[in-house]
Amino acid sequence: MSRTTAPAQVDQKADATADVALTHGLKQRHLSMIALGGVIGAGLFVGSGAGIAAAGPSIVVAYSLSGLLVMLVMRMLGEMSAANPASGSFSVHAERAIGPWAGFTAGWAFWFLLCVAVGLEAIGAAGIMTDWFPGTPEWAWVALFMVVFCGTNLAAVKNFGEFEFWFAALKVGAIVLFLGIGVLAIVGVLPDAQAPGTANLTGDGGFMPNGTEGLIVGLLASVFAYGGLETVTIAAAESEHPVQGVAKAVRTAMWRIAVFYIGSMAVIVTLVPWHDEAVVDKGPYVATLDHLGIPAAGQIMNVVVLVALLSAMNANIYGASRMACSLVAREQGPKVLGRIFGGVPRVAVTVSSAFGFLCVLLSYWRPNDVFMWLLNTIGAIILVVWFFIAVSQLILRRRTEREAPEKLVVKMWLFPALTWMSLVGMAAVFVLMAREEGTRVQLLWTGGLTVILAAVGYVIQRVRGSRAPID
């Protein structure tokens, strides 16, 4: 057997061992809704306000550019995941393409990102609950959410799927309703609302009121709003029909991004002046509904944001536990994390939840140093993951065409030109992050973590006597 294919076969078998031990309890409707709801996070409902304040109406361009990059990344990931469904997703692909150190780096960096994100989402959800129930301690709500979703993930995977199915249904319904109301208001059909025309798009400083710098800030804000799309390729390994599920999710990614993200931004900046303080203070969706005089808009959107946060918590605990399980199966983590009971990696679920809860405690105990370090460290991890995805696809596409072309159920468009274009786009985002004072520190801390993980992964690879495959 050639030097090129031997490591890939070993890695494939290792991850397959973990995937066989896991149950296939996710139905196609679960996977479809996870894919559909995965693009709708709390960052879209609330965090997009800062991007609008910086870029003005040109936020539509920012989301279009970052959305194009995400579409290409998802297409590449979908190609590899349809050809080789695995609970380790891009970590497995990176190991097969580049070497064990790359799978180790991408996998543990993503695990770290998800665990910290679980803590952040718990804090956000608890903040909403304390607004509704004044006087109740925030930590108690955090503990409750952690227990509920840790318990959900400790049970059969179908429970996770059911939670995500209904969470996603509510989020999708809210976005569709918002877009429907917005379009009616724009054309002047909504009662008591006059059609705004292009006044908010071209007035108050024009389409790019803060120039190129504002557009760059909006672009950076929009890039990180797309996190969560990767979960569907992790979940596919536990679905009834992994290949078909991934293929369908990837093929519908384009219209989902166009409608939910770009469509929402276009509606918001058309209806509401971009410099309205409510866009940042209340969030762009609440500000838009308030502007249109929709009663109880704030509370309605708070319910939707709460659901988005809880959905993200649930999905991130799931994704972290499966990634850890896959890494252990490939001898890249403590063996205890890979223990599976009843088709569920319960130790990995518990440890991932506990790490998320520790992040919450650090937000209380050490908010100005340790917790800020955590936030800065995860700032650019998703870009690192996307980079590994693109490089892996560049290598594995040629290998698959040579060895098993029938597995290419999903194909990257215009390969290899668009893959290279994606890498150039990611490099451009890294450069823009380095230029901006607010994101430079995140880039440095994420870079430091990536280098440390890569070094540890390389040492482990050398100790195991592994050699990185060469295409």
TrEMBL record:
UniProt keyword Membrane, yes or no: yes
UniProt membrane topology term: Multi-pass membrane protein
Subcellular location: Membrane
Keyword Transmembrane on entry: yes
UniProt cross-references to InterPro entries, sorted A to Z: AA-permease/SLC12A_dom, Amino_acid_permease_CS
PROSITE patterns documented for this protein: AMINO_ACID_PERMEASE_1
Principal place of residence: membrane
Keywords: Amino-acid transport, Membrane, Transmembrane, Transmembrane helix, Transport
Transmembrane segments: 33-54, 60-77, 98-119, 139-157, 169-190, 215-237, 257-274, 294-319, 340-365, 371-396, 408-431, 443-460
Pfam families linked: AA_permease
Span of domain Amino acid permease/ SLC12A: 30-440
UniProt cross-references to PANTHER family, sorted A to Z: GABA PERMEASE, GAMMA-AMINOBUTYRIC ACID PERMEASE
Protein's UniProt name: Amino acid permease
